Amino acid sequence: MSDLEKMFNMLRRMPIFAGLSDSALTLILDHSQTIKVRAGDHFFLEGEPAKSFFVIKSGVVIVEKDWRGTPIKLRRLGIGDCIGEMAIIDLMGRSASVRAETDCRALEIPRTTLAKLYQQDLEQYTIIMMNMGREVSRRLRSASERLFAIEQTTPK
């Protein structure tokens, strides 16, 4: 199986790409590139403008926010997870930094690729944007549950 076929199959299994046609996935893969990020280096920093989002192909990343000059770990993500999609949706700066905990390889999907999909197939664009919204919503629910649990154990 070629690398392209492996990547195609990996995307097919991911919720963010669920329901996309072969032609939409092909467009995405044709206009994306694989990048390497060494352990300790950042994919992006909190506050930076978003030009792309990423699908982790190998390795583990740490999502962290700055708190008074100290990075606070929010979660770990690995193979098959997406990072950076929130800033693609809301067109704001990155909400957190993402640092490679181990050497990583990732598919970088530029915002311009989504614009091409929008121009060529509005239905497929709508599907991926809805899927991205669902992923952000799942993460928000998880964060809300964790915050609720912390609030219940914190003395008042």
Defining key terms:
8 strands; four-stranded antiparallel beta sheet; 156 residues; Jelly Rolls; alpha+beta; 28% strand
Structural commentary:
- Helix 4 packs across helix 5.
- The chain is α+β, with helices and mostly antiparallel strands and 156 residues long.
- The chain has a single domain, classed as Jelly Rolls (Sandwich).
- Strand 4 and strand 5 form a beta hairpin.
- A four-stranded antiparallel β-sheet has the order 1-8-3-6. Strands 2-7-4-5 form a four-stranded antiparallel β-sheet, with no helix packed on it.
- The chain is globular.
- The relative contact order is 0.20.
Entry summary:
The chain has 156 residues and is of the alpha+beta class. It contains 5 helices and 8 strands, in the order ααββββββαββαα. It has a single domain, classed as Jelly Rolls, CATH 2.60.120.10.
What is the helical fraction, as a range of percent?
40-55%
The H-level CATH homologous superfamily, spelled out, is: Jelly Rolls
Contiguous helical run count: 5
Q: How does the overall form come out from the CA principal axes?
A: globular
Whole-number count of domains:
1
- The sequence of SSEs as H and E is HHEEEEEEHEEHH
Largest sheet: 4 strands, antiparallel
Rg, rounded, reads 16 Å
CATH structural fold name: Jelly Rolls
Class inferred from helices and paired strands: alpha+beta
Q: Give the name of the CATH architecture.
A: Sandwich
Strand runs, count: 8
Unreliable stretches covering 5 or more consecutive residues: none
> Strand content of the residues, in percent?
25-35%
Average per-residue pLDDT, rounded, comes to: 91
Distance between the termini: 58 Å
CATH C-level name: Mainly Beta
Major sheet: arrangement of strands: 1-8-3-6
